[in-house]
Prior knowledge:
Chain A is α+β, with helices and mostly antiparallel strands. Chain A has nine helices and 14 strands.
Amino acid sequence: MSTMRIRFAAVITSIPFCILGNPVGHGQPTAEATASAVLFRRFEAVAYSRTDLLSELRVRPQGQVDGTNYLELPYAEWMEGLGKIGSNAERDLERSYSSLLVGAMEFGGEVGLGPGPDGLGMVNSRKCYVATLESGREPDLRQDFAGASIQTIDEVPVWVWTVPAEGGVTNAVTFYAAQVGGTYFVLANNRPDFQIVITSLSPAGNSAPAVPNVVGWETLSGADYWLYRSFRRAGVTSPDAAGINGLTPDVTTLIFYADAGDKQGFVQVLSSDITKNSAPNVLRKLAPDRFQPQGAGLWQATIQLSRGGADADTMLELLYRFGFGVAL
Amino acid sequence: MSGSDVSVTPGSTQTDSEVALNYSIAQSASAGNYNLTFSDRFGASAPATFSVGDDTPIISGITPSVWPAGQTTQVTFVGQHFGTNAPVLGFSDSSITYAISTSTDGQIVANVTVPASTPNENVDVAVTSTGYGGNGFMPAPGQSGPASSATATVTNGGGECFAQLKFRPVPHLPPPLSANHSFWYIQDSDGVQWIIDGGPSGTCPGDCGNLIDWVTEGTVSSHFNAEPSLDSSGKTTAWSIGPASGQLCEQVDTLYQISSYYWPPGGDIPYCITGPNSNSFAWYVGVPMAEFDITTPPPNVPGWGSLQ
C-alpha cells in the first residue's frame, strides 16, 4: 500500500494542472470548493452537478431519454430519500441551492438504498450529499421536512426519517438532513458520515482545506458536472458492486467532467504505470485507442453528450466505474 | 447339534437305519452351516452338515406409494425378511435419496427425498437384506437373493405446460428513468418449473427497452439492438440446461442460447429465443437459468406483474 501511495504522489507532481483543460477556477474559495474538499477527504468517489442541470435531465418526457440520463444515477438516493419526506422537498431544495455534491464509498456494503435479493437496482453505498448556496438567503425548509423527526447532533437541529424496506427490494434506510452554516444543506444515509460532514462544514468546526487537493481541480471547479474517483481496493467485498471488476491495478483515478452547453464530456484515466503506450482498458465500449495521452500516466477521451448522441452503454458503464452502477 | 439356535427332538421313526427328527430353527439363528451328530453307547457318528439360510425379503406394502417431486416423504415399507441388520433401499431413479428412521424384520420407515426435477414416473424400489444379528445375508435354498422390489410413483406438478413472461420493477431509478426486469416463468410438460432471466425493459436508454419484444419470426434482422444479429448463424446449440426439447410447451417448443453482451458486465450470458415452430420469439439477457423449486411460491408475489 505504501508503494502505491508513493507512486501515485509521483504521478500527481509530474502532471501540470493545465493539461486537464483551461483553468477556470473561481478564484476565492467557494462553498462548492469547501464542500468538495470535505467530501474528498472522506469519500472514495465524489460527484458534482449544478442543480439546474439535474432538473433539465429530469423533465424530459417519458420515453425520450438517452444516455445522458444516466448522469442522474449519483443523485438517485437524494431523489428517493427526499421524495419520501415530502412531495416538494427536492424541488424546493434544487431551486434554492445551486449545486449538489455527493460523496460515496463502501460500494455494495450494508448502508444505503440498494438492490434486493434479485440484484436489481442501484449499487448501495454510504452517501453524503451537500447542496451549496451560490448566493441569496438560506431557504426555510421547515414545511418540506414537517414529516421528519428532529434530533440534535453536535448542537445542530437535524431532520431524521426512515425509508422502510419495501417488498423485500431494499434495506430500510434512515436519512439525516440539516442546514449548516447558512450555506450548506447536508443529507446522508447514515449518521457517522453525516456527523463528520456537518462538523467539517460548520463555521465553528471547519477544518477543511479551502480547495480540494486533487488532480485537475482547477478544471473541475469550472465544470457543470463532474465525477471523480480515487480507487480504494482494500476491503472491497464485491468487485462487481465496487465497479472495479476488470480494472487493472495501475488505474488509480478516474475523472469525468462536462459542461451542459458543450454537448461533450471528457473521460480521464490516471495510471500509476507511466510507461504504458496505451490507455488502460477502463470502459468496454470506449476502446483504449480513443484515449489520447495528456501527460505521464494520464489519458483522455471525449464522448458525445448531445441529445440522442450519448451512447447509453458507455454512459451506464462510466457511472458504474465511479461506483454509481445500476443492475437493470 | 452345533449351535444353540438350532435344536432337534426325536420324531416318529426310529430304526437301525433311519431316524426321523423334528427340528426347530430360532428366528435369531445365524445363517451358515450346522453339524448334526448321532451318539450312542458305541460312540459318535460322523457329523452330517446342513445349512441355515435367510429368506429373500418380500415387500407387501408401500405407504404412501405416490411421492411428490421436490419433497421429502416419510414412507413405510411393510413386508417380511428385511433382516435385523440395517437393510438397504434402492431406486430405479438414482436421483432419489433416502434416510432410514427405523427398521425391523417386517417394516422399514424411511424419509424418501425426490428432487424437484424428477418427472412423473414409476420407480422400482428394492429392499436388500443385509442379514441378521450381525451376520451377512446367506440365501436359503430356493430363495432368489437378498433383494426384492415393488413399485412406487413419482408425481410432479400436474403436468400443465405453460410459459409466462413476468416482471418486477427495478427499484431506485431516478426519474424519468424506469425499468421492469422480466423473467420467463416456464412449466414444462413434466410439471417442472423454471425461471429464466429476461432482462430489462422500460424507459431507459440502451439495451433497456429493447430486450423484451415480441416480433414475428422472420423479422429477426430488423431488431436493431441484436448483439449479435439473431439470424440462423447466431443460433447455437439447443438449451444445455433446463427443459429439454420435447418437454417444452407448444408455445415454447425449443430454446436456443446465444452468447452476447449483458449488463452489468461479467461475461457471456445466453440470449434465448423460442422457436423454430413458434411464431414469435423473445430475446433476453441475464444470469444462467436456474431451476425453480416447485415447492416455493411462483414469482407472482407482491411486486411482480404479468406482462401477458
